[in-house]
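Re: the 199-residue chain
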Amino acid sequence: METKKQQEKKIQYIICRVCGYIETADKADQPCPACGFPKTVWMEYNPRRLNPTRKKLLDLHLHPIAVHFPITGSASTLLLPLIALVVPYGLSYRLFDMVTLIAMIMPLLTLIGAVSGYIGGKLRYKTTTAPLLKRKMYLSIVYFLITLGQSYIAFSTGVGPENALIMAGLGLVSSVVAAILGKQGSHLFAGLHGPYVAG
């Protein structure tokens, strides 16, 4: 009878060259279930072996989940103040209140995303001193400082017609930084020219 390790060694994986979806080799005669491209997109893939405890923690996907909240917040602080400037007063008042609340919690959301990314990097790569990881940490600090500025405006004066464009401008800058961080994350996931990035 085969041991579990021997059975695991027999499992072969394939990866879609278009979207980066990973599947077991027995599905090589089927189209990619993620992007729908025909079976010709598959190529052999050998995943890196991870410690079972580290793998369980990474499989929780805490960082990918956590970063969606500040990204949504950044987009909200960009768009909602602009919308509030052109809608009737009753609605604009509520939108400005929403932006104020979002801006006040953005530093916390950004911090949670950054910390979860640091922990994820440490679990996956056992280091945080590699160039790409360091770049992500520096960008995260910039992102955090921008959200602190938004939070200060929201806390000290609230968001209204008089500072809506300033808040939207900071929302634009924070959205750009968030997009760059996301792109850096995709490079960490699949490499600069990997199928996930190129797809």
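The mean pLDDT is 84.
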